[in-house]
Amino acid sequence: MGEGQGASGRRTRALPPELLADVLDHLAEALVITERSPAGDRRVVRVNAAFVRLFGHDADVVVGADPWTLVGAETDPQALARLEAALAGDGVATTPVTLRHADGGVVRVLAHSFVSAGLEVTLLRDPHRSPVDAVGHHDEAWAQAIVSGLSDVVIVTDDEGVVTWASPSLTARLGYGVAEVVGTPCFDYLDPDQLDLAAMEWVETIAVGSRFSPVAFRVRHVDGTWRVMQISAAPLLDHPAVRGMVLTLTDLTDRAEAEERIAASERWAKTLIEGGIGMVAIIGHDGMISYASSSSVAVLGREPDELVGTVQFDLVHPEDRDGLADAFAGAIAGGPSGPHEFRVRHASGEYRVVSAMFTDLLDSPVIGGVVVNAHDVTGRHRAELLLTEQAEVLEAVARGAPLEITLQRVALMIEHLIEGAQVAVGTTDAGGRMRTRAAPLLPRAIVDLLDAVPADAPLVRRLSAAADTAATLLDLDDPVDLLGATDDVAAARRLFADAGLGQVRILVLHAPGTGEVLGALSAFVPDHLRLGPIETEVLARAANLASIAVERARFESTLEYQASFDRLTGLPNRAVLHTRIAEGLARSGRLGAGVAVVFIDLDRFKVINDSIGHARGDELLQLVAERLAGTLRPGDTLGRFGGDEFMVVCNRIADEEAARRAATRFSAVLSEPFSLGDGTVHVTASMGIAVSDDPDELPEALIRNADVALFRAKDSGRNQLQVFSEALDRS
Prior knowledge:
Blueprint: H1 17-24, E1 30-36, E2 42-47, H2 49-55, H3 59-62, H4 77-87, E3 93-100, E4 106-116, E5 119-125, H5 131-134, H6 140-149, E6 153-157, E7 163-166, H7 169-174, H8 178-181, H9 195-208, E8 212-220, E9 226-236, E10 244-251, H10 253-265, H11 267-273, E11 279-283, E12 289-292, H12 296-300, H13 304-307, H14 321-332, E13 340-345, E14 351-361, E15 369-376, H15 378-399, H16 403-417, E16 422-428, E17 434-438, H17 444-451, H18 458-464, E18 473-476, H19 489-498, E19 503-510, E20 517-525, H20 533-564, H21 574-591, E21 594-602, H22 605-612, H23 614-629, E22 637-642, E23 645-653, H24 656-671, E24 674-676, E25 679-681, E26 685-692, H25 699-715, E27 721-723, H26 726-730
Parallel strand pairs: 26-27
Antiparallel strand pairs: 1-2, 1-5, 3-4, 4-5, 6-7, 6-10, 8-9, 9-10, 11-12, 11-15, 13-14, 14-15, 16-17, 16-20, 18-19, 19-20, 21-23, 21-26, 22-23, 24-25
């Protein structure tokens, strides 16, 4: 294995390969050994007993697996990149990661990866350091002062658990005075249901001689309530200055309640809220940072040495500096110490949201500054923003907002949550082409390029064939590949380069339930941006929302069509005919011409239908509709009134004679035989006509008059035509 850093900080000697197997299972820290195959795949070749205890996975399940499948979605992608580089032989990497437990939960550990003797080695250890360890390079007075300034509780006990010392923060967190706790067993303050767990951890810690990973215990407050405290222990029984067990208690009660509320509404939000390791910093009178803990790497991606000597506001977002100054001044004046939230620039260039507590120790001769406890809460903010915007999109869908507006919201949601992303959402048209429906930030020239992609382009065919009901992902390193064949590839590539877009991820939109392809969501991002698990989840959720919106719009369009058109013939139904008559009558006064309603009833259709069968009868009705439609003038409307009855609304009719000529045309086209299957069918029709040029006449009256005329025509025999008159109505 070569030399590595042990739990105590001492360097271990190189072990011969033949002794490695005997030593691994005696290590207190979890250990994973991996190797890379000639094909480039990495697989786990061994884990030790501590790994099995910590994560609950059987060794047989883990060995042979891809180690990255054990990593939780909450792990910073940059942390994974550092570990990957170390396992590739590029130095040593130490960074916090989150690994999946066998019970479905997650465990946050500190991963230490390196390569030695051809083996890829990763040690997984407790990332939480005792405050005494954190300040061990200073004198005792400095250590006492910094511990007293922490919001966490620090307790020292003997080997039997009797309290010998406690930090002043004990009173603020649990209500007890230090004097009343010293001399009492620490186990007296734990929930009786957890005493067995506490005893087991205690005995193992003393026996092994290394600290145990933080465990959440319920601790009794002086008022009788229970507080959820995360407790870690460091055995310093042999330390000449301590000679005891150092317990660090972090109050998780408020955070646990907040996480539970968010988890109840959205499980994914919970994974984001489980933030990183908190950092400690000291800021002097002059605003300069005089100390930063090693956790600054996890929170800001910066080593402590990079922060010491800088002004506290250097990395703070300009919009948050005034608020931070007020919070800092308030803490010095004895006001509330937090938490205060503000944005700080990470080493990657992005701004992270941190929540900080301030403790004024400026008057301390040892500290001479304000102690800041800061935690990364960017995940919580992202979760809250995602939930808010997701709710807005769903509300827009429920309200029946226009599809373009809803898809615009979906695209903006991605652009808010993924810095640098520019999104296009498209739907497939009747010809199979993708048409952009929303692209808030994409330049118009790029949108035009996307809309010009032909339906037979290889990528479009590939997306259209994606039948998986889950969102299909497709990553392209060159966005121009999305366009297929284009006249000027160089010009297209310049457009993307000028917009700072070097890659694209495409998600297919599927109809919920059926899996039918509805369109695609394309997220264009800069070259340097790595789309990690969080970004992938955001895109998947956005694609799901877009699919719901498109399917809802299609459903409403179908309902609207069905409400206005006959399903068999595709002709307007009686509701549309009523509207067309009303519109024609309203125009009649201005145009000086009337409206004619021609009621057409197929003679003896029931007999024909019974003789040829209902399926052929339906086909005959469709053929009748096609012939009648071919005789219409521009502006006329043919509709199916019901059964074997059709109606034509003729606009700009000068008089009854013009209406008669139109009806004669209809009769003539129906006189030709209809070919059905192997035979022919002859059809005649009776027609009733009503004409009016009165703008005040009601459509119902004109329809009634045409119906009366139709009744008279049929009463006179088949294939007759009758025009309505007042005399006809009285007879």
